[in-house]
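Handout, page 2. Input:
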Amino acid sequence: MSELSPCPVCQSPYTYQLDSLLVCPECGHEWSSVEEATADEGFVVKDSNSNILRDGDTVVTIKNLPVKGTSQTVKAGTKVKNIRLVDSDHNIDCKIEGFGAMALKSEFVKKA
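Output:
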């Protein structure tokens, strides 16, 4: 039997699961176990299909992406290995073969 986490409001250890929710019998607070898992992770980056990305993942570009300062583009379907997540507008740092170090937006990639 898995151990349920205590209530985030009153810290009561007597929580129980009701369908997809966790419930505290002492204060009546209800919360989702999915929200709890996401809150524990803090900074979360999702790809275009809402898959959660992690450092070191491999992703594939889903559209042609122009490279600023050149006339070249990163073609759709380009595989990018060993990504690093950062908390900024372009939230993926990576190295793309033939282009070098780049920053990508997670909305233009999918997990491979």
